[in-house]
């Protein structure tokens, strides 16, 4: 099955996993900047990370025939220190024109604090200024509904941002309709042991359809599965979805969203 894994943290994954993804049919990956599992001690730590995302990972992916794209920002977890976050944000213009950078992400909220919100809004303004696509992380568990509402209201205050160029990720049953009704793209993230799984994601797709939605594993350094999309495809087939429908979700939709950046190379017809 040909697919795109549009949200995954390959810096945390092994070469064997690149190989397994390629063998399963993965043609391209999207890797937003995020928390590395530890707090970086200086802005220079982020400079190195941005080099890794724009030089090292594309080279690793290319060995398996995969295109590698990335998104730049300081993640919400490390954005609690506003002065530090601004120092990191100053590095972004230096990297934004690199050939695999699609936009600003994954920005958003972690614990829904006012400091996180300040930096989230400054990232949105930067995306408007630099005419970039936006990829948004929503908080988990009990913080998700409130955080998603805060995010949507900050977006609404920026009419210059075209909702079709913004994706709000990690949606669940209670936040998916809010994001879709507001006109944004919605992301469904599959986790092996907690949060959304293939069955719950398939339920949401049955209820709301496949328009303006992508699915991903967001696999990182924790308990996660870089092949989660193949499990979702099997769940969809089991429920009677057609191959065209599965392909729309797993290939056509990420292509349509990421393809709004002129840097994205279409893979479905290659
Ligand atoms: Zn992520």
Compose a concise summary of this entry.
The chain is α/β, with parallel strands linked by helices. Helices cover 43% and strands 16% of the residues.
Describe the structure.
With 270 residues, this protein is of the alpha/beta class. Helices cover 43% and strands 16% of the residues. The protein has 10 helices and 8 strands. The chain has helices at 15-24, 43-62, 82-89, 92-95, 114-130, 144-156, 176-181, 198-208, 228-238, 243-258, and strands at 3-5, 26-32, 67-72, 101-108, 133-137, 166-169, 185-189, 213-216. The protein has an 8-stranded parallel β-sheet. Helix 3 packs parallel to helix 5 and helix 5 packs across helix 6. The longest helix is centred in the first third of the chain and has 20 residues, at 43-62. The chain is globular, with a radius of gyration of 17 Å. The protein starts with a strand and ends in a 12-residue tail after the last helix. The mean pLDDT is 96. It binds zinc ion. Zinc ion (ZN) binds at residues 7, 9, 32, 34, 106, 218.
Identify the notable features of this structure and list them briefly:
270 residues, binds zinc ion, single chain, Metal_Hydrolase, alpha/beta
């Amino acid at each position: 099955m040909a697919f795109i894994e549009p949200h995954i943290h390959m810096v945390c994954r092994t070469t064997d996993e690149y190989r397994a993804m390629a063998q399963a049919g993965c043609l391209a990956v999207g890797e937003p900047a995020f928390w590395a599992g530890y707090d970086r001690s200086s802005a220079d730590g982020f400079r190195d990370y941005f080099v890794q995302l724009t030089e090292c990972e594309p080279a690793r992916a290319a060995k398996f025939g995969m295109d590698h794209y990335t998104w730049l920002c300081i993640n919400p977890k490390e954005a609690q220190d506003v002065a530090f976050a601004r120092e990191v944000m100053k590095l972004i213009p230096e990297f934004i024109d690199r050939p695999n950078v699609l936009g600003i992400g994954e920005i958003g909220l972690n614990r829904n604090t006012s400091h996180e919100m300040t930096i989230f809004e400054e990232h949105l303004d930067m995306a408007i200024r630099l005419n970039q696509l936006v990829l948004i992380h929503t908080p988990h568990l009990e913080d998700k509904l409130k955080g998603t509402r805060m995010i949507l209201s900050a977006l609404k205050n920026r009419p210059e941002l075209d909702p079709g160029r913004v994706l709000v990720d990690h949606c669940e049953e209670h936040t998916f309709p809010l994001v879709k009704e507001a006109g944004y793209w919605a992301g469904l993230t599959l986790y092996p042991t907690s949060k959304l799984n293939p069955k719950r994601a398939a339920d949401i797709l049955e209820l709301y359809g496949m328009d303006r939605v992508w699915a991903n594993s967001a696999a990182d350094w924790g308990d996660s599965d870089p092949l989660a999309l193949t499990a979702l495809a099997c769940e969809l087939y089991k429920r009677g979805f057609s191959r065209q429908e599965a392909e729309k979700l797993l290939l056509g939709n990420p292509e349509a969203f990421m393809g709004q950046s002129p840097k994205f190379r279409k893979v479905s017809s290659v």
